[in-house]
Amino acid sequence: MADLPVYTDADPSMAELLATHPHLTTDPMCGLMFEGVPLNAIADAVGTPCWVLGAGTLRQRLKRMQTAMVDAGLDVSIHYAVKANDHLSVLSLIGQEGYGVDIVSGGELARTQKAGIAANRVVFSGVGKSDAELEYAIGLGIGQINVESAEELGIISAIATRLGKQATITLRINPDVDAKTHAKITTGLAANKFGIPFDNAAALYARAFTLPGLKPVGFATHIGSQIVSTAPYHAAYARVAELVRTVRASGLSVEVVDCGGGLGICYRNEVEGQPEALAGTIRAELGELGVRLSIEPGRWPVGPAGVLLSSVVLRKQEGLPAPFVVLDAAMNDMVRPSMYDAWHGILPLAPQAFNQPVTPTHVVGPVCESGDTFARDRLLPPLERASRIAILDTGAYGAVMSSTYNSRPLATQVLVENGQWTVIRHRQTLEELWQDETIPAHPTGKA
Fold this sequence. Notes:
Blueprint: H1 14-19, E1 24-27, E2 31-34, E3 37-38, H2 39-46, E4 50-54, H3 55-71, E5 76-81, H4 88-96, E6 100-103, H5 106-114, E7 122-124, H6 131-140, E8 144-147, H7 150-163, E9 167-174, E10 196-197, H8 198-208, E11 214-220, H9 231-249, E12 256-258, H10 275-286, E13 292-295, H11 299-302, E14 306-316, E15 324-327, H12 336-340, E16 346-348, E17 359-364, E18 373-380, E19 388-392, E20 412-417, E21 420-425, H13 430-433
Parallel strand pairs: 4-20, 5-6, 5-13, 6-7, 7-8, 8-9, 9-10, 9-11, 11-12, 12-13, 15-17
Antiparallel strand pairs: 1-2, 2-3, 4-14, 14-15, 14-19, 16-19, 17-18, 20-21
């Protein structure tokens, strides 16, 4: 597992960030543009903080991933990982483009059904599926349940039998492979809570064939998130291939291998994970097995498709070596920097800002936590009160992880498509913060 990031090289400049984010451009009159739409125009209309998601960018990245698999001679089903961004507009787009989905809760399953995605295109992962969630999924006839433990296997068998159904399952294997990513998003080590230990998998797969209500079809694996090297994938898929050959040699059929997701993006100056390289890895390790293949991307297609707009509340500088720029966005809006020490690019919206000198600046939020920090010593132009900025690469694990901590309403969400923009979630009102709360009637205490 990787340690917390300690950067010794220079942060990318604003020009370098623009070069690695082709959906962002600058206009001498309008300032920062997103898929051809002035971000200032959106902020003028709906205020800040505000999430902006680009449908075109999302479509293009999904298409590139699909094309990479086809060009490698692979027939790979793409199941978008709903946890990355579960907005109905995103799920509707996913369904319209013909992709499936990977879910980890009954709530996510309900969202996919609301968005019109067929149940047989849904894969259900997760270590703690409740009885109610499994009943819902099996009753719908979802395409696949990834079983994470021997204990869960028995539970699914009992529920399917009681419902008079047959649940299609794979065993999610923990290959004990270090993905060299952040400790909080690695999932393929033996110490992690995910998946079935590799050494137990063959025997448990054989047992699955003896249990009623189950249709075992193969194996799944997922080793982590924000992976930018193919080496961990090679190691994990080689172990899965070994397992497939072992169980086939014992006379059992294997029809499916679910390769998981986790392909990383370029937040700072990483070499972004390449779908073409992933496809080559899948072909090299699994391509000769004659199985149906699938992947579960989330961050890679949707992460770069989003930005978070924010305005400067104040600039705190007197007596300080570097100013604190306090935003109206906070850790309750985007928790990744606080939770993962995540680095996100920051660009000003004003056109003149791109020609001004830059100085080290601390960018923070207003929440009463020292962890409410977006950047330290970031080289930025002067950001005075009411200046606006865009925090980049927030399409994944951004709005979906927001909370109302400090009684801060959830921010507006906007979708940009074909040069137009639409509000897809209105800003939560203060009254809506407590609309589901009640104050119980208390006895007066008087005799």
